[in-house]
Amino acid sequence: MESPSENPFASPMVDDIVEANFIDAPDEQVRRDHIRHEKSIKTIGGLYILGASLLLLVLVLTVREFVSRVTQGNLRPPEAGFAVFLVAIGVLQFAVGVGLWKLQNWARYPGALFSAFSMISVPFGTILGGYFLYLLLSRKGAYVCSDEYKRIMAVTPHVKVTTSKVLLTVLFVLLAILVTIIGIAVFFNSR
After folding, report:
1. Which of 98, 116, 115 is nearest to 107 (CA)?
2. Mapping DSSP to helix (H, G, I), strand (E, B) and coil, where does residue 8 land?
3. pLDDT tens digits for 35-45?
4. Which residues of 89-113 are buried (b: 16+ CB within 10 A; e: fewer)?
5. What is the widest separation between alpha-carbon atoms in the chain?
6. Which of 22, 28, 76, 114 fits a 20 to 30 Å CA distance from 62?
7. Do 42 and 103 contact (CB within 8 A), yes or no?
8. Rounded CA gap, 103 and 38, in Å?
9. Rounded to an integer, what distance in angstroms lies between the CA atom of residue 11 and that of residue 50?
10. 40: closest CA among 112, 103, 117, 120?
11. Calpha distance 87→60 (Å, rounded)
């Protein structure tokens, strides 16, 4: 007679599936506990990439003026030094942004330095810089950028962060307002 716990109709693979899910459960739970922090650090990296790209774009657009001053002999050494400094900052910020996007541990500290400098622009820079410092220097930030967490990410690719539709709508409306304001400013300045 069969024991009451055995199901004669169950597939032999059911036990394997249950065991596999049980083995992955701790990694999956760790990923779910840290995924918002992971996405926030990646967002900081994206913002640094965007900021560095805009800085470098502005510098490229001013190259003509820079070259014109060099050929005319009107360039003063402090201006040249400042331009080189800005290029170095842009390249460093871009590298840090890519490092944060890839959750590299080395990028946390220069990212924290950039965040600390952003706190000078009151009030938004102060608020965002403080929040970025928390994200990068907290225990969760250190763990999210560790090799162990990268291993967990590799075994749990199916775990995704969900963003509410309300938040996406608010962000879209804010972006539309920002684009409209920039468009109006460009239009009136071109007249």
Report:
1. 98
2. coil
3. 999 999 999 99
4. bbeebbbbbbbbbebbeebbebbbe
5. 102
6. 114
7. yes
8. 8
9. 53
10. 103
11. 10
Structure tokens at 55: 């800085």
Helix boundaries (H) for 2-76: 14-61, 63-72
Give tens-digit pLDDT for 143-185. 999 999 999 999 999 988 877 788 788 888 888 888 888 888 7
C-alpha to C-alpha distance for 136 and 126, rounded to whole angstroms: 15
Extract the tokens encoding 5: 């716990």
Name the token pair of 155.
């075994």
Tell me the three-class secondary structure of 88-123, residue by residue. HHHHHHHHHHHHHHCCCHHHHHHHHHHHHHHCCCCC
| Identity of residue 182 | I
Which distant-in-sequence residues (6+ apart) come within 8 Å of 153 by Cβ?
31, 38
